[in-house]
Amino acid sequence: MTTGSLHVRAATRASALAQWQTDAVSEALIDVAARAGLTLTVEKVLVETTADQRLDIPIHAMGGKGVFVKEVQAAVLDGRADIAVHSGKDMPAITPEGLIIAAVPPRADARDLLIGSTLDDLVDGAVVATGSIRRRAQLAHARPDLRFADLRGNIATRLAKSVDFDAIVMAAAAVDRLDIDLSDRSIELMDPAVMLPQVAQGAMAVECRSDASSLIELLALIEDPASRLAVNAERSFLAELGGDCDLPAGAYATLHGNILEIEAILASEDGSTLLRERRRVPAHDAIEVGRELARQLLDHRGGAELLRR
Q1: Which position among 90, 121, 181, 184 bears the catalytic label?
Q2: Catalytic residue at 150?
Q3: One GO CC annotation, please (predicted)?
Q4: Range of the domain at 169
Q5: Which of 142, 197, 255, 264 is deepest in the core (most CB within 10 A)?
Q6: H or E element that contains 45
């Protein structure tokens, strides 16, 4: 990396959480660049996505994963921005041609957060609001009596609407990053044994063009190897399911020394069927174990039949 100055345009959604993530990435880049003798400035390029505008349509009806990132990725591909900062859980399993995930910074808490009640304290027939079919399926599997309502919007909007329901579900990382005070509410951090997180939940991913060698070199300096290994394993699971499987699915990987532990699920939408597999493998097998888990669920546990329904 050469010394001097560099101006980077960072594409992001306009939500408070997306901008927080972009600010965090920017600060990390400025810090590592300074230590390398480079003066770096970062400019945010705000992208209003169709998914942000159409709050009347459920996410799964708009195409599921990828609806929040495609237009942000387009800003990098067409030259309006140099990098794109995403929530890892929003990203499609396959990276578009011409782009590369150049950095996965340290991951935050990957778990889901039940707000308004604990799971055990929800009354029979309680209404839980969430826009995620993964969350609905797992809650229905644990508590078949529950009813569900759709919930869309940014963090503040969803929290404001929460008074209309018995509970809502959000990513713990979003609440932590925005430093939201929930001390006046009953909450429960969901154990992954009950609610397995979305692929790459709690992680950030920074993309740039695959031919931007200087940027790739710079972004590598904010990479967290353990977070990258976990995200790679989870994304390979989703990719092997068929890119962006429209069934409830989740995967969660953690690194323990040189051992990667990963658990994955595939479920029916109503939660009546929930398939679960877990593996512990050497860390260098991260991508292959994700694929192997998907094949196990599809070929030997009845997942392929779920996909045909």
Answers
A1: 90
A2: no
A3: cytoplasm
A4: 112-189
A5: 264
A6: strand 38-47
